[in-house]
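Quarterly update, task 2.4: pyridoxal-5'-phosphate-bound model.
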Amino acid sequence: MTDRRDELAVNLAKVEERITAACVAAGRKREEVTLIVVTKTYPASDVRMLAELGVRHVAENRDQDAAPKAAECADLALSWHFVGQLQTNKVRSVVGYADVVQSVDRARLVTALSKEAERTGRQLGCLIQVALDAEVSGRGERGGVAPGGVGELADLVAGAPGLRLDGLMTVAPLTGSTPGANRRRSGG
Ligand SMILES: *Cc1c(COP(=O)(O)O)cnc(C)c1O
């Protein structure tokens, strides 16, 4: 599968170029920025090649796919991120391989994650997912807590055993006051 490896290497180099250019434009150091490669829908063999190419963080959004993939790649020095909506009945499985959950958006999930992290002696990084398009106190369509609820949830994570508050995960809406902020595809 060297063709696939070459393809991944070329695309990764393109992404790396864009990150470097963005860092230069923003006056930031490259090492301040972490590349997290979303590997969902791609096989474990791709994850393995990416790791060989220097990728250190991968992200998945479906536990059913991620759990076996993470098991197949358990020998690799990778951090696994869970992105997207997470049901509490998947928490036990997800905490088994994830280093970071990027979609913490409700108290019940905090409780479940904390309980499982403690039980297994793991430390789990948590990002509060913010829904910028949600009603004042509501939730976003694709998960996420409204901005007004962030403080309370962050306090909850910060005080929960086994959890580490790593920051926020935000996605700008396609319309409204910040339109187009996530219009970022250019063949990548
Ligand atoms: C797939 C996915 C991403 C990455 O989106 P792309 O459009 O593939 O860049 C980010 N977050 C979640 C929750 C996802 O499921």
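Highlight for this quarter: The chain has a mean pLDDT of 92.
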